[in-house]
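Re: the 821-residue chain
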Amino acid sequence: MDKKYEHLQAEAQAQELWHTQNTYSADNNPGPLYSIDTPPPTVSGALHIGHVFSYTQTDIIARYKRMNGFSVFYPFGFDDNGLPTERFVEKKHNVYAHGMARSEFINLCLQETAQVEKHFEALWQRLGFSIDWSLSYSTIDARTRKISQQSFIELYKKGFIYRKDEPALYCTTCRTTVAQAELEDAEKPSTFNDIVFMCDEEKLVIGTTRPELLPSCVALLYHPEDTRYQHLKNKTATVPLFNYQVPVLEDTDVDPAKGTGLVMCCTFGDKTDILWYKKFNLPYRQSIGLDGKWVESTGPLAGLRVAAAREKVLEVLEQTGLLLAKKPIKHNVNIHERCKREIEYLILKQWFLKVLAYKQEFLALAEEIKWYPTFMKSRYKNWVENISWDWCLSRQRFYGIPFPAWHCTNCNETLLADPKDLPIDPQETPYPGTCSNCPGENSIVPDTDVMDTWNTSSLTPYIVAGLYNKNSDNVFAQAEPFMPMSMRPQAHDIIRTWAFYTIVKSWMHNKLIPWYTIVISGHVLSTEKEKISKSQGNSPLAPETLLNTYPADALRYWTASGTLGHDMAFSESQISIGQKLLIKLWNAFRFAQPYLEGYTPDTNQVPTHLGPVNSWLLQNSSTCFTSYNHYFELNEFSLALAAVEKFFWNDFCDNYLEIIKDQLMNPANYTAQEVEATRWTLYTVGLRILQLYAPFVPHVTETLYGLIYKATVGTPSLHQTRFTRFQKLYVFEQSTTVMEAILTIISQVRRLKTEQQLSLKTELATLAIHVQDPVLAQALKGQEALLKAVTKAHEITYSSQAASSKLTALDELWHGEITIS
């Protein structure tokens, strides 16, 4: 072995081995199926350290499961049909999607995503992910488009999907409708304005934060028990500036203590406006266009955007004496998570998936899934309980999966594509027939919207089921027994989207939970304690830069120090600790290699004369694996790593290797049986250590396995070995007692030498050990050669008398006395 671990060379060689040998194919790793519903990263530029953090944690679990005897099905996808991809392409090419031909923009997106996906794949491979790259997919490829459109048709026929003119959340910046799950709350400055309405000769004062919606006012409302306004029942009021009449209504949803207790309903300022619009069958008066500008019918506000329209209407109201007060406030508003701009509500003909009617079913499904960490289930339940909208599936974008539908403009009939023709784009393919209600009429137009990207991402269990079954003709009919999948790994910020929507779709299609287990990771935080993301632009170091500075295994070590579900700060110091581990592993096995080279023991046959030192190490390795296995079964990989760290650094390196060093280097001083037992134990436990570290630091462990063990074990890769073959359970209670005494002796001698400022290599003329237990004394005499070697004592004496620990110099040599209990 080289003196130094050359990580770049080792990583390249290991990755080439895994690639050429197809190491991580489920077919090459027989056993019970363990399937992973891996999150497809959004294709919108470069990956950041947060991706490295969460995706590496998934790979650690996958590697553990594979070595624990499972056939791990570990595919990978790329999410490239959403708004982020559109924005990425627009920015890179300085184009605007709405200013191009649709087909031209789609081709540009496909071209860019193909390049980005190659970059992503190369980065994941550099990090040593044990993914089967032959099982990859894109959320815009033809196979996925077919599955997504199949799902739409099937759920439409089952009655879960409907289309109607409906108030929808709309982002005028991104020019598309959005789902409730895509909203964030943000505190914004504004003003609370008291505006005068007239009812006959009476002035009515309305308090509002959105005076620019006056041209959309359709009613005034008060609480039925508010005596101030009960006389207004069945009357009408005049909207200021726009001079049309609106009814005055009563409703218990009005808060009498807020503002003046009299409110206006506009179409639409918020969800309550929509509730009243439906409840009282109010008219729809549109103020805001799809481009975010006020429409022509709004008079002086026409052509203005929200901020300018607000300023203009307040200016005119003040000039006409209809603005009584304007108080500065800060309030929470809904913003679109992508552009961070305030959301609006517009009526559009949209596709919706029914979720409100099935809340109890979705809550019950959560109880069938194991959540790690468990407290994340409450986040899911809180979200489901507070949903107030059906899921709007429609998006007014260019790049995405189109709805496989056409519409008859005469009778409003929806016409669906034939499943055998999928995938299909109705804008490019005319409907192959006529409307049954309107024969002979040329009135069929294509649906021009595309699906919400989550409508496709929510189908990932079905998408990968097609890869597993090697058949995507009808993945919904073939879902069982592949589903439920074994595990879904994901971050906590998309519980309300990806987790929820996947549960919804699996239930609607097959009445199944999508996976048995969901594992929720945290985020990496910047120095400002914010989530690191591409959009935030606050990533401290790009993964490529880190990989050019540190070994991939050192980065993986840092990710393993995180705790499930909890955010953590990026830490180069933790990466440096991982780098030290690689050096320590290399040096420990470099020491062991000469004594193991060409050594072919029977690992199933334990030597008859192990001795207390070897027995102790074997028992501790068994205890370590028991803890390791326990923590991994709970997906607490950081605690599993801590168990290995303690065993490797303390038991194996600091104690065992130091004690047996003389036995290996000077075998003539020991019996052949003693030397054989030590070589057998060193070989056995060394392999166990490599196995235990393998999920965390796969490159260095693969390299060491290849140098020392591969020829004798026979398995091509360490990562294809199984714990059951090598992680035997050993218990040697008596030997543990003796070993604890040996460790006490070594520790006391080291302490005494340190107190005298002596080198640990300082030789002792005599070492007097005072021990009252005659059985223990006899056992220690049996290890005298080892004790002399490690303490540098020429002679050891034993006494049952108690004495104070001390070290004294007589002549040119030192003499020590220690007491052990």
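The mean pLDDT is 91.
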